[in-house]
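User: Teach me something about this protein's shape.
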Amino acid sequence: MTWLDNPENRCVVAEYEGRLCGVGLLHRSGQIRLFYIDPEAQRRGAGRAIHAALEQQAHAWKLPRLHLDSTANARAFYEALGYRSMGPARARVGILRCFPYEKQLAGDSPVTS
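Assistant: First, the predicted structure itself:
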């Protein structure tokens, strides 16, 4: 089974000026497993549109929160969408550092430790 035909995933894409410019993938666990916007299409609303579609699916699945690992460059984007840092960077794929983030969805109570 592939990511696209797996019913546990929701994949959305964005177009800009007639070409594919971004993709996002949400797993039913609440993890955003893929989120990419072509650098030439950044700051034009594609990222927010993809995220809105993923969040809409999360609400349909009745998920209490979303979580993801962000690159250093994307941290401000996720923070602007309401995500909060969940700890220090972790090594991924060799030298890539990823930062864990989480967002509580509306109507849900915060997680307590």
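Now, about its shape. Helices lie at 46-60, 75-80. Strands lie at 9-16, 19-27, 32-37, 65-70, 84-85, 90-92, 96-104. If you'd like, I can walk through any region in more detail.
User: That's plenty for now, thanks!
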